Amino acid sequence: MTRRVIVDTDTAGDDTQAILLGALSGAVELELLTIVAGNVEFDYQVENAKYTLELAGVADEVPVYEGARRPLVKEFEHVDHVHGAGGLGGELFPDTGIESAEGYGPDAIVEAVRESPGELTLVCIGPLTNIALALRREPRLGELVEEVVVMGGAVNTLGNDTPSAEFNFWVDPDAAKVVMRELDVTLLDWGLTMRQATLESDELEPIEEAETPYADFFDEITAHLREFSEERFGSDATTQPDSLAMATVIEPDLVEEAPRYHVDVDEREGLTRGYSMVDELGITDGEARTRVVESIDEARFKTIFTDMLLHGDPDRSL
Amino acid sequence: MTRRVIVDTDTAGDDTQAILLGALSGAVELELLTIVAGNVEFDYQVENAKYTLELAGVADEVPVYEGARRPLVKEFEHVDHVHGAGGLGGELFPDTGIESAEGYGPDAIVEAVRESPGELTLVCIGPLTNIALALRREPRLGELVEEVVVMGGAVNTLGNDTPSAEFNFWVDPDAAKVVMRELDVTLLDWGLTMRQATLESDELEPIEEAETPYADFFDEITAHLREFSEERFGSDATTQPDSLAMATVIEPDLVEEAPRYHVDVDEREGLTRGYSMVDELGITDGEARTRVVESIDEARFKTIFTDMLLHGDPDRSL
Amino acid sequence: MTRRVIVDTDTAGDDTQAILLGALSGAVELELLTIVAGNVEFDYQVENAKYTLELAGVADEVPVYEGARRPLVKEFEHVDHVHGAGGLGGELFPDTGIESAEGYGPDAIVEAVRESPGELTLVCIGPLTNIALALRREPRLGELVEEVVVMGGAVNTLGNDTPSAEFNFWVDPDAAKVVMRELDVTLLDWGLTMRQATLESDELEPIEEAETPYADFFDEITAHLREFSEERFGSDATTQPDSLAMATVIEPDLVEEAPRYHVDVDEREGLTRGYSMVDELGITDGEARTRVVESIDEARFKTIFTDMLLHGDPDRSL
Amino acid sequence: MTRRVIVDTDTAGDDTQAILLGALSGAVELELLTIVAGNVEFDYQVENAKYTLELAGVADEVPVYEGARRPLVKEFEHVDHVHGAGGLGGELFPDTGIESAEGYGPDAIVEAVRESPGELTLVCIGPLTNIALALRREPRLGELVEEVVVMGGAVNTLGNDTPSAEFNFWVDPDAAKVVMRELDVTLLDWGLTMRQATLESDELEPIEEAETPYADFFDEITAHLREFSEERFGSDATTQPDSLAMATVIEPDLVEEAPRYHVDVDEREGLTRGYSMVDELGITDGEARTRVVESIDEARFKTIFTDMLLHGDPDRSL
Ligand SMILES: [Ca+2]
Ligand SMILES: [Ca+2]
Ligand SMILES: [Ca+2]
Ligand SMILES: [Ca+2]
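Above: inputs. Below: predicted complex with calcium ion.
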């Protein structure tokens, strides 16, 4: 059975690979993309998304809606230093000529789920502004979707944007708080990525050597990021948080452990902006409604990912 | 020249009088109303607004759009204890049978101002959730409106909801922060109301004695509030913050002093949630963009208000 | 009956006048001074205090103890731009050669009140660090003193350091919070000073013309401050918050209205650091334990103050 | 060479074992103990400390000073539910009849380090109130001590008091912030304890079987805690955070990895009160002054600990 998916993305870096996975897998049908303020300048993100869809040959079928151009409440800064200016490594600045779909991202989400209640899965791989806005427009959003998969937070571990926060939650902590409070979410955090969704140098070699368009695209967009990671994290391994999120939608069996915990987000400015409080021991009296993915089948995920890059077919070994 | 006005309201208490003023004055043309979470239960507010329009005989012409049913981020509680259950004094629970307009409040605002750029004035007499949501949808909102008039905040004075905050700013401090940061606002605060927009017992007598439908309506909705005020503020004077906001749109010359100051809002939970920081001395380096109304022609305002109640014609003495 | 007084001071500007009042009035016996981090560099403050005692001829009798050199928790900056470098107008940098008393300010306070339980009054005219430290050493401090008089806070009015805070509370908001929570305080805030303890140009003329040492000292230390006030507040009137605090100890009948309210302080960094929440309407459930002075006998205060400067005798007209 | 040690402790549970280690090891000479508000009621803690010293036969030589009876600024609650009423498991309420030393804990620390500059090591195994108070009294504290060893914080891992905070930092986050900002600290956090300083059921067996007074004491005080841990953490293993801190003073070579990082503490009330921000990647511009112990020689630590309990001699295998 094909899962119908909406991707909400601040398209740069690994967002593109997640989109490719969704576009190329037979297990998923991309309904639409919504763009949200995040990684790099908004208009670059829109182009990056369109370019990626074009690369996968689905630009005609998957409309791209522009959403919130800034977080709900807080100010923020782009991270061009991570993904390179433009968000695709620093050399690639697509100009596809494809028109954005008419309408506002959060509306598009609301209308789609109203039309197909219980059938759509939201894969959220950027700051959660669009989703929070959709919630204000449609308080019953949670009942109308099949599943909400979020890449975000740093579950009782070091963050990647500040020591206390992961980037998506840091950019719009208010939206993250709203979403975690009001929706049943499957959460894949930065810690999971660090443990199980990084590709080490040796794992990257086959991709570097391959000459498929997807592998070339991957090499291009990761070049800058790998340098940055080398510097910040002391390793040129690549991290694939967004791809992992999409992969668990393609193949739910990837998820091995995912207990439900109470999750809250610190939305205040200061030391802990965007901190994800995950109550693993049930100490607080908050409701344990978030499914926190703690471990996945790492080998299988990497097979899916590599099959996509080397063969254009993430489902190849499924 | 008639000013075209959108009223954003959590209709209860004085919101009704502001709507009546707008509906009955020839200086103002009500384009539409949007309802926002605030004073009392959302659905009551919607009915209260429709009932008020009906009373003024304009229910056919002025569509009522339902907007945000909760604040951007924070939780809040209604203040039934202030306005009586239902928001109209506790005895009156209208059920007009009028349909709400199709569409979402914040969208209605955006579409209206896009259609008539520079021609519409927003009169905001509730929490600012709808306006903040409109800003996320249309970042150029400020350029598209003629003026944004806000009743809110407590300018370096005691608040009415907590000691540090006025109700509208307290309910949705995030929205208030966003609006004060991103729009040029004419602000009428709770302090101004306390100084110049309260009707004392003797001023209320003619209204109590009058038997016009507007005066009767006023008596009904203020009965509970006057008791509450007697208890909390030690006086049964009524306060007309929202009416004053609308009156300054009907007659801009009511405004006597309105310097521009930098205004910020504390959106954090805790002691100062909803606190309005107004930099009267220019100590901070924030931009002085908010026009803070410090004094009005009180006698004239009261004439307008009383003319409306006693003669159904706020313009009578203009 | 003479009241025995401890003055806790960040000696600069009006602190000196308060000390003079205490030293020259027969109604008060200065037991000791403690110096706290505040207005200007700590060592200047110590010298300023000693110089002032010397000027009043009591340097031999009143020991000066050095207290906390920084706030309990927060970082802060001096306000040399207000009081002039050094804190006495910018030209005067005393070097008295007088030794500080052996011991730590907060200890000196604790030991003094333990020796004379119920007999000493604390007049606190600087940030409240020393008092909070004394409280941690002696939890029964409140039972051991006769009265605690604090100059601090901005009661539902504009602050003088930031729009939301008065200087003493801003510098050490944690200490202010602790003191307001744990002691019964008589509070004289910045708003009271603005309303009733400012000397206008015409009131200052006799002082300027007088050639007594006290008047000359006053002229010197206020010269810079008056320029600063002219610039910031648009008036070269002088403000005498600390003198007023001491005057109410000399002559308690100066106080006309002083209801008890619940007072809390925002100790958080940010927009409202040092904000004094004063619950004038009893809305919160906090205990109404702080005696907030709302009005004084202004003429009489000014007589006391002027008598001190012109005749060296604050009690002259009492 | 013997290290001279001051122990600052909220004596309950493992604090007692740390004191025993210090008292029984020839590598350490206990100079004095200071008691600080924390685990259980203050007066119980004082008695617990004296009882422990008596058990080790050093009650005559090691004075116990009473320090701060509450945190610098925040309110807090005891954790009788963790350590049992009284803090020694719930059955044992010592009443030693030993007098506390004259003087205030923070003063005793200041006086001791002033007398022997550079010679004393502070082993801080409670909330850091006393240390922060000592810092306010003696700003040069850091220069006067040999080393400051702190058990506290949860370094990018789940806390034990709330999900975001370890108990000592949670109780007095302001003091923790002050200490981390103003002193060079060797920090042993809760995460290290969880990884390397827990004794599992099988490791506890020999202790349970032994009938030495120390082993009996250990069994008694851990009985309640093990039940509590079983419930909260799903394991009846005991945790020895304080013992580990003291063990690293007895045998510094226990420490295997201890890089220096910038550490800050969130002192705000709310979700992240007491959160320890540890900048492992050097992302912030804070100074990397805290030596964060990341790994120790676990086997050796356990040998020291067991030797103490079974043979009364922690140095037995050194
Ligand atoms: Ca992303
Ligand atoms: Ca309203
Ligand atoms: Ca002062
Ligand atoms: Ca402890």
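Residues 127 and 168 of chain C are 4 Å apart (CA to CA).
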